[in-house]
Amino acid sequence: SAQCIAVDRQYSGPEKLPSLVVKLSGARICLSPQTLLPVAVEFSVHPDNNALAKVPIRIEFSDYQSVQGDAVPYHIERYVQNGLVLDVKVTGAQLNTGLSASEFEVQ
Questions:
Q1: What is the mean pLDDT of each run of 10 residues along the chain (107 residues)?
Q2: CA gap 107, 103 in Å, rounded
Q3: What CA–CA distance (Å, rounded) separates 50 from 66?
Q4: Which of 41, 58, 82, 88 could bridge 76 with an S-S bond, Cβ 3.0-4.6 Å?
Q5: pTM as predicted
């Protein structure tokens, strides 16, 4: 079973954020205890017309395959209010193509 870590928003402004804002903006990351790879991310979104309403989102990652030495999930599912709304099955992946190291140099 996955181990989940709660992630709360950090804020370092001059004013203290109301506890409600912190509560509404948290997330959970679930990791495989064997591989430490993410198996799920959970968070809530809020409708434009009701910031207090929470719509739970869960994104699941599975079927990890090695691509150029890095683990890439080949199956990604997105659930909104516990209903599957997106099911992605990756057929191939390449990492860092088309970008050279010079693209990241400070100019």
A1: 76 62 76 94 89 90 96 98 97 87 82
A2: 10
A3: 42
A4: 88
A5: 0.77
Residues in the chain: 107
| Long-range CB contacts (within 8 A, 24+) of 88-91 | none
- Residue for token pair 């809530």: 44
Q: How far is Cα 85 from Cα 12, in angstroms, rounded to an integer? A: 36
CB 22 within 8 A of CB 14: no
Q: Count Cβ atoms below 10 Å from residue 67 Cβ, excluding itself.
A: 14
- Write b or e for each residue in 84-106: b if 16 or more Cβ atoms lie within 10 A of its Cβ, otherwise e: eeeeeeeeeeeeeeeeeeeeeee
Using CA atoms, how far apart are residues 102 and 107, in angstroms rounded to an integer? 10
Residues ≥6 apart with Cβ < 8 Å to 100: none
